[in-house]
Design brief:
Number of helices: 4
Strand order of the largest sheet: 2-1-5-4-3
Length: about 180
């Protein structure tokens, strides 16, 4: 989540530097809003475990949203999970899905710091079921690599043991011939 927040912050700063240099016209403002919205939608499209990403200001106004296709109903939850001075909440909460009653997802908030001050808050909705599937595959891959590596080390140590035993036997034979 922190990396998503940094990516969004960097995109906001980049757009502000590119477009914000001139006067604040409605066209410039609309172009800024559109570029940031498209960027956030791209983040959601790239990562299948993301249900939504939305950015709010400190007053509780939602500035940009991106919701995974088929999960649009989850937008009805946004007003309940906003972070404001009146509605403080922990950084991670479990939210029951409106799309699928048996499913829940995590809403994680991460502040965006601009000019050394927290300015915006990013909400990331993550499907823990998909995260578990992804980590299960990763765990299996790591276990296979560990088994392969440890098998190789055991094989090398076994060869070294047989070599040492062969050297000892050879030393005994040389010693026996010397007597």
């Amino acid at each position: 989540c922190e990396s998503l927040s940094q990516q969004i912050r960097d995109q906001i700063q980049s757009v502000n530097m590119r477009i914000g240099g001139g006067e604040k016209t409605p066209v410039n403002q609309s172009q800024k809003e559109n570029e940031i919205r498209v960027f956030i939608e791209g983040l959601v499209a790239q990562q299948e475990e993301l249900v939504y990403v939305f950015v709010q200001n400190l007053q509780g106004d939602i500035l940009w949203t991106a919701v995974r296709r088929g999960m649009e109903l989850e937008q009805n939850q946004f007003s309940h999970i906003l972070f404001t001075s009146r509605n403080s909440r922990p950084p991670q909460i479990v939210v029951n899905s409106l799309t699928n009653i048996k499913q829940s997802y995590l809403d994680i908030i991460e502040p965006i710091v601009l000019n050394d001050q927290p300015q915006l808050i990013v909400h990331v909705g993550i499907d823990p079921r998909l995260m578990e599937v992804r980590f299960a595959g990763f765990r299996t891959s790591v276990r296979q690599r560990i088994w392969l590596g440890s098998s190789f080390v055991v094989f090398i140590l076994t060869l070294a043991l047989f070599y040492v035993l062969w050297l000892l036997k050879r030393a005994q034979m040389v010693e026996a011939e010397a007597h």
